[in-house]
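User: I'm new to structure prediction. If I give you an amino acid sequence, what do you actually give back? Let's try with this one:
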Amino acid sequence: MNAVTIRNLSKTYKDFRINNLSLDLPKGTIMGLVGQNGAGKTTILKSILNMITRDSGSITVLGTDNTSSEFTSVKEDIGIVLGEMGIAGCLEGKQIDKIMKNIYKNWDSALFMDYFTRFDIPFDKPFKDLSKGMKMKVGIAVALSHGAKLLILDEATSGLDPIVRDEILDILMEFTRNENHSVILSSHIVSDLEKACDYIAFVHKGDILLTEEKDVLREEYAIVFLSKEEFSLLDPCVIKGKKESSYGVEVLMLKKDMPEDARCTSVSIEDLFILMAKEA
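Assistant: Good question. You get back a string of structure tokens that encode the predicted 3D arrangement of the chain. For your 280 residues, that looks like this:
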């Protein structure tokens, strides 16, 4: 069963459009949305939460249509970290705890305070006086402290130092050891997604270029080095992306489509996305 199922989602803005997009997030997994700024990642996440009105398509979250009246109760099971935290600037840690206790039925004050200590967040400092990274850590602490089954994080590791980012990724991976827990995480820090995610979805100009298990992407794709003459002989259908230089052409393709005796190298998730986006 999927934690999130999106079918034929379309949303049109003045200068941008999500194009008939479909996506599945299996339960017990972490999916990373990779894409440039403005690619549509935040629109997808806000559509999942029914924060924006879509033109067409359907979205099911934790088994419930997200436009139905039942979705209000399902929100109890969703932890959210978006760019805007929605936390009043005057609030300190204990005040945030008191407010959240009255919002979420399953709020765990002890766990929330434990995250404050673990993330080294000052208890007595107003939210508005915290750094961007500290504010993000408060948001993550809130998302993880009310028994959520689904976490939705938009650039949640942005602005954090590498040590804290690594710790947060470990927490997300620990979270999904429970097969009923799932995470969808957008980020431009591809190395974070490469470490933590089970599935990767490449988002480009409102389209999803590819969705696949991370390990399958690594196993099945390669960058092949060809001369321009060798490249001209390739079937265009096998070219997933390319980068030309005076030395020849680096071609992204499936290993099964490689010419015999071709030189190749393994491919990273970042290489995959850059080359596929350029080709698109």
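You can read the tokens as a compact description of the fold. Here is one thing that stands out. The chain has a mean pLDDT of 90.
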